[in-house]
């Protein structure tokens, strides 16, 4: 694929028929936790409205984001898992998918976006910061799940998952003269 292929990408809601292609993207990523194919079929049946796939003109899936509106926080879109095919050369596709999801979520009243990123995944952390900057969102981070929170029966320790919560930027207060504290200290 060439860079001009970016113009030939359609962003759309996933359907269960997309599950095998997404499952392969996850499996081949070497960094994402691979869920069962059944899981992706159910996800694309039940949460398709807040998830997205990037498909070429011949309907090849070259990227995806699974996401949902948090039941306990209906103002928040949780972008859970995402990938772009390593052989696909469309700069900015991941950010483009996130903008599309954020626009959809805004139509449902969501103003905040969350995702988790392990500390070793600097590329995704930079991409999410770029996305937040482009949307005028502030980024707040904290460890959501520690390594110890994952079962230790895995072949290797799971890295912690850092929550990136992106919220509307709070404007800086306008300079309106001295503060009450400053006036009191002069007296």
Q: What fold name goes in the CATH topology slot? A: Aminopeptidase
Total strands: 7
Distance between the termini: 71 Å
List the domain count as a whole number. Answer: 1
Largest sheet properties: 7 strands, mixed
Helix proportion range: 25-40%
| Main sheet: strand order | 1-2-3-4-5-7-6
Radius of gyration: 20 Å
Order of helix and strand elements from N to C terminus: EHHEEEHEHEEH
CATH architectural label? 3-Layer(aba) Sandwich
Strand content bin: 25-35%
Number of helices, counting only DSSP H or I runs of 4 residues or more: 5
CATH hierarchy, class: Alpha Beta
Shape: globular
Structural account:
Helix content is 30%, strand content 28%. By secondary structure, the chain is an alpha+beta fold. It has one domain (3-170): 3-Layer(aba) Sandwich (Aminopeptidase). It has a 7-stranded mixed beta sheet. Helix 3 (93-106) links the parallel strand 4 (73-84) and strand 5 (112-117). The longest helix has 14 residues, at 93-106. It starts with 9 loop residues before the first strand and ends with a helix.
Features:
187 residues; alpha+beta; Aminopeptidase; 7-stranded mixed beta sheet; disordered C terminus
List the helices and strands and how they pair.
Blueprint: E1 10-12, H1 19-29, H2 37-46, E2 52-55, E3 61-70, E4 73-84, H3 93-106, E5 112-117, H4 122-135, E6 137-145, E7 161-168, H5 180-186
Parallel strand pairs: 4-5
Antiparallel strand pairs: 1-2, 2-3, 3-4, 5-7, 6-7
Concise overview:
The protein is of the alpha+beta class and 187 residues long.
């Amino acid at each position: 694929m060439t860079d001009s292929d970016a113009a030939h990408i359609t962003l759309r809601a996933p359907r269960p028929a997309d599950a095998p292609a997404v499952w392969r993207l996850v499996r081949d990523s070497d960094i994402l936790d691979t869920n069962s194919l059944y899981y992706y079929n159910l996800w694309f049946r039940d949460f398709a409205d807040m998830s997205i796939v990037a498909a070429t003109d011949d309907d090849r899936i070259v990227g995806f984001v699974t996401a949902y509106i948090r039941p306990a926080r209906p103002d928040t879109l949780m972008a859970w898992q995402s990938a772009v095919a390593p052989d696909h050369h469309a700069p900015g596709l991941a950010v483009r998918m996130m903008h599309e999801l954020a626009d959809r979520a805004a139509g449902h009243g969501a103003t905040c976006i969350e995702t988790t990123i392990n500390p070793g995944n600097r590329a995704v952390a930079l991409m999410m910061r770029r996305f937040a900057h482009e949307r005028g969102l502030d980024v707040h981070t904290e460890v959501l799940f520690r390594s110890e929170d994952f079962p230790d029966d895995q072949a290797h320790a799971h890295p912690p998952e850092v929550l990136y919560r992106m919220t509307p930027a709070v404007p800086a207060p306008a300079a309106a003269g001295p503060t009450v504290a400053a006036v009191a200290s002069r007296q």
